[in-house]
Amino acid sequence: MRFDPSLLIALVALEISFVFGANADTVYRYNISVVVRDLTTSRRIPNVPVTLFRLRDTDDWIVVSRGKTIATGGLNFSSRKYEYTTGTYKLRYDFRNHYNVTFYPIIDITFDVSSVLENYPFPVLLSEYGYSTYKGVSN
């Protein structure tokens, strides 16, 4: 039996496709979520841009995920690029388009994820001149 190098090349290409191609569709779900409400009306606020960052080094923030709140005012995060790990994270809310005069146009909330099994919901109650947040409770 004679060795055919083209078969070896095809086999290696198939193996590379299998190993790397499977990861192309992987979505890492994060147990981090937000919900935004108007404090004065109690209405949920849709279309708020929110960005999730992770601290990579001492002062090197990387964008993990971004999106906009939906009609319920909520947003769940996932990433195709970064696996969900413990560490320091930051949520950046961009409220520049939600009041004519906004005293807090951008709000950053920094927090530590100590367990990837725990849920981290972050409600934000927003008014024209203030905001409030806390680590929410989820089932």
From TrEMBL:
Coiled coil: none
Transthyretin/hydroxyisourate hydrolase domain ranges (all copies): 32-136
Signal sequence, start to end: 1-24
Alphabetized InterPro entries for the sequence: Transthyretin/HIU_hydrolase_d, Transthyretin/HIU_hydrolase_sf
GO terms of biological process kind: purine nucleobase metabolic process
Keyword Signal: yes
Keywords: Signal
Entry-linked Pfam families: Transthyretin
Source species, domain of life: Eukaryota
Protein name as annotated: Transthyretin/hydroxyisourate hydrolase domain-containing protein
Gene name of the encoded protein: 100120403
